[in-house]
Design brief:
CATH topology: Recoverin, domain 1
Radius of gyration: 12 Å
Number of domains: 1
Helix content: 25-40%
Number of strands: 1
Distance between the termini: 24 Å
CATH class: Mainly Alpha
Order of helices and strands: EHHHH
Structural class: mainly alpha
Largest sheet: none
Length: 86
Protein backbone atom coordinates (compact mmCIF):
# COMPACT_ATOMS: atom_id res chain seq x y z
CA UNK A 1 0.00 0.00 0.00
CA UNK A 2 2.38 2.46 -1.09
CA UNK A 3 -0.26 4.62 -2.30
CA UNK A 4 0.35 6.64 0.53
CA UNK A 5 -0.72 5.57 3.60
CA UNK A 6 -2.48 6.06 2.27
CA UNK A 7 -3.66 3.43 3.34
CA UNK A 8 -1.38 4.62 5.99
CA UNK A 9 -1.77 2.51 7.08
CA UNK A 10 0.80 3.91 4.86
CA UNK A 11 0.45 5.41 2.22
CA UNK A 12 0.21 8.03 3.95
CA UNK A 13 -2.52 7.05 5.59
CA UNK A 14 -2.17 10.53 4.89
CA UNK A 15 -5.36 10.68 3.36
CA UNK A 16 -6.77 8.22 5.69
CA UNK A 17 -5.06 9.62 8.66
CA UNK A 18 -3.31 12.91 8.91
CA UNK A 19 -4.23 14.40 5.59
CA UNK A 20 -7.81 13.62 6.36
CA UNK A 21 -7.58 15.38 9.66
CA UNK A 22 -9.07 18.35 7.88
CA UNK A 23 -12.35 17.80 6.11
CA UNK A 24 -10.74 19.00 2.91
CA UNK A 25 -7.03 19.15 2.25
CA UNK A 26 -5.69 22.50 1.03
CA UNK A 27 -4.86 22.63 -2.65
CA UNK A 28 -1.36 22.07 -3.97
CA UNK A 29 -0.73 25.67 -5.06
CA UNK A 30 -1.70 27.00 -1.64
CA UNK A 31 0.73 24.65 0.10
CA UNK A 32 3.61 25.28 -2.31
CA UNK A 33 4.42 28.61 -0.70
CA UNK A 34 7.81 29.01 -2.40
CA UNK A 35 6.42 28.13 -5.86
CA UNK A 36 9.03 25.40 -6.31
CA UNK A 37 6.53 22.99 -7.91
CA UNK A 38 6.94 20.76 -4.87
CA UNK A 39 5.68 20.72 -1.29
CA UNK A 40 8.27 20.24 1.44
CA UNK A 41 7.50 18.64 4.78
CA UNK A 42 7.81 22.07 6.40
CA UNK A 43 5.32 23.62 3.98
CA UNK A 44 2.91 20.75 4.50
CA UNK A 45 3.14 20.85 8.29
CA UNK A 46 2.23 24.55 8.36
CA UNK A 47 -1.24 23.67 7.07
CA UNK A 48 -1.40 20.10 8.40
CA UNK A 49 0.61 19.92 11.62
CA UNK A 50 -0.40 16.32 12.28
CA UNK A 51 1.49 14.99 9.25
CA UNK A 52 4.57 13.09 10.38
CA UNK A 53 7.91 12.72 8.62
CA UNK A 54 7.10 9.03 8.13
CA UNK A 55 3.80 9.82 6.43
CA UNK A 56 5.49 12.41 4.25
CA UNK A 57 8.18 9.92 3.25
CA UNK A 58 5.54 7.37 2.30
CA UNK A 59 3.87 9.93 0.04
CA UNK A 60 7.18 11.07 -1.47
CA UNK A 61 7.41 8.10 -3.80
CA UNK A 62 10.48 9.38 -5.66
CA UNK A 63 12.24 10.25 -2.37
CA UNK A 64 13.34 13.69 -3.55
CA UNK A 65 12.21 15.46 -0.38
CA UNK A 66 9.21 17.18 -1.94
CA UNK A 67 5.73 16.09 -2.93
CA UNK A 68 4.95 16.69 -6.57
CA UNK A 69 1.40 17.59 -7.58
CA UNK A 70 0.86 13.95 -8.52
CA UNK A 71 2.22 12.61 -5.22
CA UNK A 72 0.10 15.09 -3.28
CA UNK A 73 -3.02 14.15 -5.26
CA UNK A 74 -2.40 10.46 -4.59
CA UNK A 75 -1.83 11.12 -0.89
CA UNK A 76 -5.00 13.12 -0.47
CA UNK A 77 -7.30 11.05 -2.67
CA UNK A 78 -10.12 9.34 -0.83
CA UNK A 79 -9.35 5.73 -0.04
CA UNK A 80 -11.40 3.31 -2.13
CA UNK A 81 -14.39 1.83 -0.39
CA UNK A 82 -14.22 -1.97 -0.40
CA UNK A 83 -17.13 -3.79 -1.97
CA UNK A 84 -19.41 -5.43 0.55
CA UNK A 85 -18.80 -9.12 1.12
CA UNK A 86 -21.43 -11.35 -0.36
Amino acid sequence: MKKLILSVAVVLGLSGAAFAQDAVAPDFATLDTDASAGISLTELQVAMPGVTAEQFAAADTDANGELSAEEFAAATAPAPVPAPAM
